[in-house]
Amino acid sequence: MSTAEAPSHLHENPYEIARQQLRRVGETFGIDPNLIGVLELCKKTVEVSIPTRMDDGSVNVYTGYRVTHNIARGPSKGGIRYHPAVTRDEVKALSIWMTWKCSLMGLPFGGAKGGVVVDPKLLSRRELERMTRRFTSEIINEIGPEKDIPAPDVGTDASVMAWIFDTFSMNKGHSVLGVVTGKPLAIGGSLGRLEATARGALYCIEEVLREETRSIDGLRVAVQGAGNVGGHLARMLVEEGATVIAISDSQGGIHNSAGLDIPSALAYKAERGSFEGFRDAETITNEELILLECDVLAPCALEQVITAENAPHVQARIVCEGANGPVTPTADEILEDRGIVVLPDVLANAGGVVVSYFEWVQGLQEYFWKEEQVNARLNEIVTRAFRETWETRLERRTSMRMAAYGIAVQRVAEATITRGLYP
Ligand code: GLU
Fold first, then answer.
1. Coil, helix or strand for 116?
2. In which domain, by residue range, is 275 found?
3. CA 97 to ligand 1: nearest atom
4. What is the pLDDT of residues 244-287, one digit of tens each?
5. Per residue in 122-137, pLDDT tens?
6. pTM score > 0.90 for this model?
7. Domain tally for the chain?
């Protein structure tokens, strides 16, 4: 039995978006069109079928992908997504964005991404484990510590990484710590990795506020998504003195213009599975959340939630892309024209892959760092990338996205030219 097609959140083809963005970067920064022609395409796309024994004895067959976009600067790096609406082109786009993200952060990695067309919420833990182990076996020749290193993304977590690590290691006959990141602490994960994506986003917000000579105290934020990024970001913002006025999950959200009690709201959701019925808050839809009056809007869930339709009505001054690709290119132009600062995904959510890099290094060296060291080095890397992006934006009179992509693509271009075209 194979699974039925799920309704998609994608209005536009993300791969086309990623390619279009790259062509614009090429024109703006004067990069050789031959090179852009190479970088527009993914180096390798692997599609596999994943027959999985369900608990009732039946067999479901899932489709999985692992795409390597580019390895000019090092082994490819990027998460694995479990979502019912995953497509090959979505995974390709996400792998391209990983190349730019790693490059902007100055990490010695290229970009990759994986995905399985599955709703993980509908599988039992044992089914999820069997599916993950079979997927790992199907892509076992693609991944490895010097080759391609997966990590968590939407719908996957540390347990999934543990199964990938174990399956790969059993096949090699010894533990291979560097094969995935985002592992549980008990088997070589890094302190600070779980919160790293949110922490990086927080550092970016703090840097913009520094530019505006404004403090985070009383900053009004709406957070879309309560997963690993949105949930931790909301909690950290409140700890730093901001007011989180709204938060949501895939089913909908809650709003209180005076501020939400975020720790209680997250505990409530953890217990009951949704925010529905949480005290002192009105229920809102995910669409309504995007349009709330606030200082910072942080879309931390899926792609394409800010579109040509709703971008003219966004009331935030700053949009912080906790998710990958939440703003479509047309929406991006509208926000830019309206003077809204967009902190692009490759900058705003790069904290995760930065600490993945630390985890990979710690694993290879078998020497583990203290959490303060992890966070201090994360801060150094994200803040430096922010400053470079901000300065390029001012010099070129362009958007933060164009500046970030420009820096990133130029670095990959330089590596490609320096290595030369084989043969
Ligand atoms: N999936 C995350 C991202 O989109 C993390 C990738 C990684 O750590 O390799 O950046």
1. strand
2. 196-348
3. 4
4. 999 999 999 999 999 999 999 999 999 999 999 999 999 999 99
5. 999 999 999 999 999 9
6. yes
7. 2
